[in-house]
Amino acid sequence: MKSEDFQYIAALLKERSGLVLTSDKVYLLESRLIPVARKRGLKGLDDLVDTIRKTKPEPLIADVTEAMTTNESFFFRDTKPFDLFRDNVLPHILSARPNKTFRVWCAAASTGQEPYSLAMILKEQSAKLAGWKYEIVGTDLSREVLERAKKGLYSQFEVQRGLPIQMLVKYFEKKDDQWQIKPEIRGMVQYKELNLLHDLKALGNFDVVFCRNVLIYFDQATKGKILENISKLMPNDGMLFLGGAETVLGISDKFKPLPGQRGVYCQANAPAGLGMAKAS
């Protein structure tokens, strides 16, 4: 791929999605965009870039953006954040919300494994949640992956990645050579198309936000802006989960690490001595 073509597409992707592509990612761009060119009946990457340059067709630009921003996901990824949510964050919410309502946002829902993992945890806690009203909202830039998420249909390989066998038996149904998550779990999650670079206010407020393995794709300024916008949607004692390779340190003054808990952050103006309750 010609250097000027790479720079053009990289600039387009940063403008549209915030994704930062460095020159060592040429191979990634080529591998993901060649199928897009074929799908559109174009001769190759040169033809694809020329078409975008000349006519800026929105459907093609959307296809390119989706191809480059679609990332893999799997159930109960890294395990620890989900244990912390179940054993510490959820008990804190239950003790601190007299109105018996709370909302959880998965800010990069992809094909749905993360929000469905949280839904299964909440389903398992049904006895404690009697009388409570709660919502799980999953958003993503890619309409294609959100459509997959809504169907909740996964391959054998996908359900083997992180999903405990007892959860598979309890909450999934066999569909030919695939597995579909049951309607009772699918109905617990709302999916919405969303670009994290855009205004987030329409989403409403959230007590817990999972924004894991997303910020690593943005530059420092964009990371800071996204964190600032997320903080505006959360109460003082709201909890933010980031990926294991992500941090707020040196990026944003809106959040601070929760003492003793890796990967979990609270608002910088959180009540003094805020901790997380232990599950009883």
Using brief descriptors, characterize the structure shown.
Chemotaxis Receptor Methyltransferase Cher, domain 1, 11 helices, seven-stranded mixed beta sheet, 42% helix, 2 domains, alpha/beta, Rossmann fold, 280 residues, three-stranded antiparallel beta sheet, globular
Question: In words, what does this structure look like?
Answer:
- With 280 residues, this protein is an alpha/beta fold.
- The protein has 2 domains: 3-69, Chemotaxis receptor methyltransferase CheR, N-terminal domain (Chemotaxis Receptor Methyltransferase Cher, domain 1), CATH 1.10.155.10; 80-267, Rossmann fold (3-Layer(aba) Sandwich), CATH 3.40.50.
- It has 11 helices and 10 strands.
- It has helices spanning 3-17, 26-39, 45-55, 58-69, 80-96, 113-124, 143-151, 156-159, 165-171, 183-186, 220-231, and strands at residues 101-106, 133-140, 153-155, 172-175, 178-181, 189-193, 208-210, 239-241, 255-257, 264-267.
- The chain has a 7-stranded mixed beta sheet with strand order 6-2-1-7-8-10-9. A 3-stranded antiparallel beta sheet has the order 3-5-4.
- Strand 4 and strand 5 (178-181) form a beta hairpin.
- Helix 2 crosses helix 4.
- The mean pLDDT is 90.
